[in-house]
Amino acid sequence: MTLVSSPLVRIQVCGPLAVERGGQRLDGLLPGRQGRLLFAYLVVNRHRQVPRDELAGALWREPDPAAVDVRLNPLLSKLRRVFGASSVEGRSTLRLCLPEAWVDLEAAVEAIHRAESSVAQQEWARAWGPALTALFVAEREFLPGEDAPWIDEIRHQLTELRLRALECYAAAGLDIGGTEAAAAVRAGRQLIRLAPLRESGYRYLMQALAAQGNLAEALNIYGQLSECLRDELGVSPSPVTRELYQRLLATT
Predict the structure, then answer these.
(1) pLDDT at residue 91 above 90?
(2) What is the mean pLDDT of residues 73-77?
(3) How many whole angstroms separate alpha carbon 240 and alpha carbon 219?
(4) φ and ψ at 25, to 5 degrees?
(5) Of 148, 53, 43, 61, nearest in space to 103 by CA
């Protein structure tokens, strides 16, 4: 007897929520706004058991403990109808069971680990693709239009992931060189805009501009960093950044 595996479920939680299985879109079958939030919460926590009261707190600001089951059970029943009776396991605690699922947020986290590992090993070409994968996901807002503490927490994680992806992308672009030097410049500028107190963006931008022959602007970027750190924190650039500045200055 041949066992036929179920089609892969592809889930996008960053940007508009999208669920696809076997070429069929399933997100339109989710039970309304609360059903979409419930599904998204189970997706991002799918590797652990989630207590019912925690689920209720994720869906409603002040859930009535006596009414949790009455409000949750219909939503869970509808999810099981969409994805199968065994797709949500448990009673007092619940877990989404879609073993063949691909989730964009998980793919981005895995990709940034590969990118950072490749950068650490100075395998720049290998870092480039995973850095872009992580960046494409991290640039999309998690559950746009929704507001809750757990949503804000994941958005914060995505912001940090985006910064790490930009750092890897800039590092790879710098060392690959050629047309990728321009990509490193763009990544450096994005890093400065998103995290003006994070020195890595200034360093990557200084190096990328110097690689393009724009040494004057590269040195000017150091001045911008110095002014920003002095005004905001009352400190000077780190020794690593100062050393880069001196090295570039020596080439003038």
Answers:
(1) no
(2) 93
(3) 15
(4) -80, 130
(5) 43
* Type of residue numbered 1: M
Matching fold, domains 9-100 and 178-252? no
Residue-wise DSSP of 88-131: EE-SSEEEE--TT-EEHHHHHHHHHHHHHHHHHTT-HHHHHHHH
Q: Which two tokens stand for residue 96?
A: 């989404």
Cα→Cα distances 115→167, 192, 212, 216, 239, Å: 10, 20, 24, 31, 26
Question: For the whole prediction, is pTM greater than 0.85?
Answer: yes
What is the CB neighbour count within 10 angstroms for residue 102? Answer: 13
Residue 195 tokens read as: 């995290």
Pairing of β 88-89 and β 93-96: antiparallel
Instruction: Give mean pLDDT, residues 134-158.
Output: 95
- Domain boundaries 178-252, CATH class: mainly alpha
Q: Which helix (H) or strand (E) holds 21?
A: strand 18-21
Return the closest-CA partner of residue 14 out of 94, 134, 101, 128: 134
Domain residue extents for the chain: 9-100, 108-176, 178-252
Q: Please tell me the CATH code under which domain 9-100 is placed.
A: 1.10.10.10
**Minimal CA–CA distance to 180: which of 191, 192, 168?**
168
* One-letter identity of residue 142: F
b (16+ CB within 10 A) / e for 179-197: ebbebbbebbbbbbeebee
